[in-house]
Amino acid sequence: MALALCPGSFDPPTNGHVDIVERAARHFDRVIVAVLHNPDKRPLLAVEERVKLLDAVVGYLPGVEVVTFEGLLVDLAKERRADVIVKGLRSTSDMGYELQMAHINAALAPGTDTVFIAASPAWSFVSSSMVKQVASYGGDVGPFVPQQVAEALARHFTVGQGRGSIPGEKG
Ligand code: PNS
């Protein structure tokens, strides 16, 4: 039984994230989607909401479970006896950062392997931060995120948040 850990901030989940989890689920018996809860950061979507959205869009896939984690990813990997960490790679500019994380994780917990799945070209330009920015100005994020996520973003930017204002981000 091969178990993959798919970690991320998922603030918000995008079609690119969904694609990576769906493809990971085809290669591994079990996939744990691990949503980072960082109490020092102010995400747009509360961790509970990110989990709820991911549950709705990938939680139904056979073998897929959505959880939150705090602290080091390698500790969760050890606790859940994950075989690999799976991350999506959109571009060469992603690669530097992703490789750095993979090397740090391997240094912290020798034997921790990270497997990269090349993002589908259709989603290679989609990022959570750009989706947030478009949504914050009332733009249509429908092409980039699942419907439930688009609805959650619309709620956030009509109730409470001002246009163009994204928690935790400057400018
Ligand atoms: O989707 P993201 O935001 O690039 O995901 C980043 C994530 C959550 C995988 C990374 O920040 C993480 O693993 N954080 C937990 C803290 C940790 O283990 N840090 C050491 C590796 S850099």
What is the overall pLDDT average?
Answer: 94
Please, what is the oligomeric state?
single chain
Q: Give the helix level as a range of percent.
A: 40-55%
How are the strands of the biggest sheet laid out side by side? 3-2-1-4-5
Cα shape: globular
Q: How far apart lie the N and C ends?
A: 46 Å
Low-confidence stretches: none
Class computed from helices, strands and strand pairing: alpha/beta
Q: How many helices?
A: 6
N-to-C SSE string, H for helix and E for strand: EHEHEHEHEHH
Whole-angstrom Rg? 16 Å
- The amount of beta strand, in percent, is 15-25%
User: Largest beta sheet, briefly?
Assistant: 5 strands, parallel
Bound molecules: 4'-phosphopantetheine
Number of DSSP strand runs: 5
Account of the protein in words:
The protein is an alpha/beta fold and 171 residues long. It is 40% helix and 18% strand. It has 6 helices and 5 strands. The chain has helices spanning 15-27, 47-57, 73-79, 92-108, 128-136, 147-158, and strands at 3-8, 30-36, 64-69, 84-89, 113-118. A 5-stranded parallel beta sheet has the order 3-2-1-4-5, sandwiched between helices. α4 links the parallel β4 (84-89) and β5. The protein starts with a strand and ends in a 13-residue tail after the last helix. The mean pLDDT is 94. The structure holds 4'-phosphopantetheine (PNS). Residues 7-9, 36, 72-73, 101, 104-105 line the site of 4'-phosphopantetheine (PNS).
